[in-house]
Design brief:
alpha+beta; 13-stranded antiparallel β-sheet; 4 helices; about 15% helix
Amino acid sequence: MKFSVKERRLVSRLQMRGSNVSVAARNFETPLGEISLSQGPTKRNNPQAMANGHQEWNFDSKCAPRAVIFEVVDDSHLLARLIKTGVRGEVEGVPFEVRARSALLPKNRKVDFLGGIGTFKFRTNGFRVHVGDERGVVMATANSVANWNASTVPTPELLIVIVMFVALDANFFMQSPLWRNF
């Protein structure tokens, strides 16, 4: 089954910088319904997080589990650095972590969602991105970040992980380091 995850930005990145309130920033249209992302200042009293302008991202929907990502930023280069060291969050109150690695060889590029509602592993093979479970069973593939293909109807858990992958701009790690700046 082919499906798409379309991102619609409601607030620009420039408007979000330095905001002290939580704002509905983006909507994602999925086959099971719409998932909204609200961004606001982090609720953790970590001096480093406050100095770096870390935010808390809340994913709300009637069709997918509720997810929160702590201490992220809306700048793509800083966000990539944070994801390399590990970004933490919760799905339905269960903690998870997102880790990524970039490499010159496609087989070594990866983004992993560990814990929470399961383990989801994003890998690249040529020009496609594959998402699979901890056993390596491929659940969906993508030619681009917006267009996905699954053998069955995607589960709500798979959809929320794909939406977080798109929101975190984790496709950055699936691209060749030689082509990123072009």
